[in-house]
Amino acid sequence: MKVLKILVVDDEIAIRQVLAHAIRRLGHEVITAKDAEEALTEMAANEVDVTFSDVRMPGMTGIELIEEARRRGHECFFVIMTAFASVSTAIDAMRSGAYDYMMKPLRNEDVEHRIKLIADLIDLRNENHALRNAAMQVSDKVFHSASEAMARVDRIVAKVANTDATLMICGASGSGKGVTAKNIHNASRRANKPFIPVNCAAIPEQLLESELFGHSKGAFTGASTKKIGLFEAASGGTLFLDEIGELPLAMQAKLLHVLEDKQIRPVGSDRFTPVDVRIIAATNRDLPGMIERNEFREDLYFRLNVFSILLPSLSERREDLLPLFRFFLENERKKLGLSQSFEIDAEVEAVLLGYDFPGNIRELENIAERAVILAEDNLIRVEDLPQQLYKRAGVSLPEETNLRDRLKQYEQQIIKETLDSVDGDRRAAAKLLGLGLSSLYRKLEEYS
User: Fold this and answer.
1) Contact, 351 vs 394, CB < 8 A?
2) Which of 79, 237, 249, 427 lies most in the core, judged by the most C-beta atoms within 10 Å?
3) Per DSSP, which regions of 236-315 are E strands?
């Protein structure tokens, strides 16, 4: 099981401490927050995989936390905890996008079981995303923007892609910086060499140098073997340094020397290794402002910013909104192996066009993925959208009567994906899903 980064949100310190201790004993990394506001701050600074959140807290509730996190484009599995169980609370939690719902006091074995199921789902999702990306590359299926704002970006990309110039891609979170960097790599002479993305904010400061430049055996406690760094692993290709504004000042100085000298020195080694790597950096931070505050090196900024590409937010390319939504729906349809394309209700189009999408393209893609899971009869209806969208648009829906059917549909899809991932081996699938083999057979009979 991979090590997960898990956020525990509860206003009671004793619960935070007990749950954090239980999770650490399972080998996972834990962050804690006393309320939703602090939780959102932690999500912005960390790539959280799972969030255990109380429902009733000062300020925002746990359900409001889910909705706000989704609005900001944070992707993680939410498990809602409460001592006040009710059917309506469970329904609200699931409607808002919670993965699961647990009653307090929590039992350690239940927490362990939930985490294992989520870890397996994350592995399966990553595998599906990799397969989808591979399929997209094979079919050369890309989205062609109709906006003038993106046309300007495309013109710059066409001019610089086949050079070795260092690039800085700027734009709001979720605006497509990673996709743009990959497109530049694919259009360059380095396309058949590695493209390695690095989230500078996700690597602990004490590990950054080793991750980027590698280390020799015995360089520090725990360095039992030689490690190849990401610069060397990307040799001949492209290293994409995302969230470059989060790089500590000490590491900025070392990165500057590498860019100037085109060689690295692994931690614990006295030898320099030449590297042939193209650097593409990206940020959503105001780097000139950080330079004025002595938070970012000016010399490194100019070294990285040979060419600058400013990506527009989704609100600046509104003509792409509905075509992008259809594009993502089609991607999800192919990923799930569905034969029939999806239609979009006119009211859905109106709601989407009336929403400002603070999470940009990433938020739109998440909405499309959710809609495909919930849709019935291959029609995307307004109730298949997150509540904050249609509520903001003033759309009121009748009380949901078929939530159980929708959850069953989602469960059916998870089972199908899991079976596909193990080539139809039902015993292996049951183990991954945390089900008994007889329970899996019973569910398959229900869906047949």
Assistant:
1) no
2) 79
3) 238-242, 263-264, 273-274, 278-283, 307-310
pTM for this one?
Answer: 0.57
CATH of 316-447, one of 1.20.120.1460, 2.60.40.1180, 3.40.50.740, 1.10.8.60: 1.10.8.60
**Where in the chain are the domains?**
5-124, 148-311, 316-447
Q: How many CB atoms lie within 10 A of CB 49?
A: 20
User: β-pairing, 278-283 with 238-242?
Assistant: parallel
Backbone angles phi, psi at 131, to 5 degrees: -65, -40
Q: Which amino acid is at 222?
A: G
Determine what percent of the chain is predicted with pLDDT higher than 90. 35
> Is 148-311 the same fold as 5-124?
yes
> CA-CA distance, 70 to 97, in Å (whole number)?
8
- Classify 262 in phi/psi space as left (phi over 0), alpha (psi -120 to 50) or beta: left
Type of residue found at 275: V
Residue located via tokens 């402002």: 289
Could you give phi then psi for residue 307, rounded to 5 degrees? -125, 140
CA dist 275 and 260 (Å) reads 11
Residues 396-430: pLDDT tens digits?
555 444 555 566 666 777 788 788 787 788 877 87
Respond yes or no on whether the N-terminal peptide bond of residue 105 is cis (omega within 30° of 0): yes
In CATH, 5-124 is 3.10.20.280: no
CA distances in angstroms from 174 to 179, 188, 314, 358, listed in the order given: 10, 24, 9, 9
Number of H-type helices and E-type strands within the chain:
19, 14
Q: Does domain 148-311 have CATH number 1.20.140.10?
A: no
Other Cβ atoms less than 10 A from the Cβ of 334: the count is: 15
CA distances to 154, 163, 416, 448 from 378, in Å: 34, 45, 18, 19
Q: How many residues does the chain have?
A: 448
384 DSSP assignment: G
Q: Which residue has the higher pLDDT, 320 or 226?
A: 320
The tokens of 27 are what?
């080998």
